[in-house]
Amino acid sequence: MNEAILSRNHVKVKGSGTSSIMFAPGFGCDQSVWSAVAPAFEEDHQVILFDYVGSGHSDLHAYDLNRYRTLDGYAQDVLDVCEALDLEKTVFVGHSVGAVIGMLASIRRPDLFSHLVMVGPSPCYLNDPPEYYGGFEEEQLFGLLEMMEKNYIGWATVFAGTVLNQSDRPDIKEELESRFCSTDPVIARRFAKAAFFSDHRENLSKVTVPSLILQCSDDIIAPAAVGEYVHKHLPYSRLKQMEARGHCPHMSHPEETIQLIGDYLKVHV
């Protein structure tokens, strides 16, 4: 067991099961976003939680600009944690860009993963008509980066509302804001650039690990067309439409999230 890696990524292991399940956060968040979901799996699984380097309680001194310039660096974090814990055939549950990071990790080391659960995944956020609708125009994403640089707190407020897309849940919006604001603005902007300007559509066909795609309703960040595209191009995948609205069902609708993941695992694992 590599204690240095476990400390670097602030790895927490809970549960008493023989099989393992790893929960990965999305952009701007840490492992605490899974607090309403992960405990439900502790009875039957060894539950692994972690932070990407540069987020949460990870070791900020380990942050390397070149390594984390692309999502491949974050995928290496996932592989490092798996190897540090001697994991095999792990269920990987990733939210948003975390799902794509897990996908990239599975392509490099498919032996480490048994299934992928992709919550609101998007392989490309930019529109590429007429074949692909990612939800954003290039100028919108450049505007996002500019706002992060000039008014990070203001950006956090606006982006939290956009991500959640539920005006009746101010508690969750404030929770997201606080997580965004707890991240170093420079690192957050670099992560945003790596996430929102990447295009991993060609990687979908390379995945050999079976997967479940959870598609939220009224998701501005990863619209329904994106979920359908991922399902069409991702081998061995299943697509489940959620009743949950917005982009963070693990925070806003944890019961449905737990139910759908649990139902899938009962049948396929």
TrEMBL record:
Boundaries of every AB hydrolase-1 domain copy: 21-254
Keywords for this protein: Hydrolase
InterPro entries: AB_hydrolase_1, AB_hydrolase_fold
Entry superkingdom: Bacteria
Pfam families xrefs: Abhydrolase_1
Molecular-function annotations in GO: hydrolase activity
SUPFAM superfamilies for the chain: alpha/beta-Hydrolases
UniProt family annotation: Belongs to the AB hydrolase superfamily.
Protein name according to UniProt: Alpha/beta hydrolase
